[in-house]
Amino acid sequence: QLQLVESGGDLVQPGGSLSLSCVPSESILDYYAIGWFRQAQGKEREGVSCISTRVGHTIYADSMKGRFTISKDNAKNTVTLQMSSLKPEDTAVYYCAVVGSYKGDLGFDIREYDYWGQGTQVTVSS
Questions:
Q1: Are the C-beta atoms of 80 and 19 separated by less than 8 Å?
Q2: For all residues of the chain together, what is the average pLDDT?
Q3: Do 17 and 124 form a contact (C-beta atoms < 8 A)?
Q4: What is the DSSP string of 49-118?
Q5: Contact between 6 and 96 (Cβ < 8 Å)
Q6: Which has the minimum average pLDDT: 7-11, 27-31, 79-83, 122-126?
């Protein structure tokens, strides 16, 4: 069973930056894509960004474009979500998730993600 370990969540002031990391227990190249989702208290889980592990194709949710950047480091077997210009509404638990095999174009359909991490808390507050 693939395990995903997220790290980097913290308390940050509005306008600040934060970098989240996701490290799978197996090579990221064994899977099709890795994505980030978030869930704020009382709200549904929503997609943030996703990257295909071999080609490096990326997608972003509209509200994150220009502020968040997803990247992968095959050598370190890590996927990173760099977040900047953070807003209080970015406060949420952020989850890393993996699409095991190709299911079509990258997207944020939760049903297409086969493995999930435990999440890391990001709080944006002054």
A1: yes
A2: 95
A3: no
A4: EEEETTT--EEE-GGGTTTEEEEEETTTTEEEEEE-S--GGG-EEEEEEEE-S--SS----GGG--EE--
A5: yes
A6: 27-31
- Tokens linked to 71: 């990247």
Which residues are within 8 A (CB) of 46 and not within 5 positions of it... i.e. 6 or more apart? 37, 38, 39, 61, 108
pLDDT digits (tens, 9 = 90+) for 52-90: 999 999 999 998 999 999 999 999 999 999 999 999 999
pLDDT above 90 (res 103): no
How many other CB atoms are found less than 10 A from the CB of residue 58?
16
> From the CB of residue 21, how many other CB atoms can be counted at a distance below 10 Å?
16
Q: Copy the structure tokens of residue 30.
A: 């064994």
Between strands 46-52 and 58-60, the pairing is antiparallel
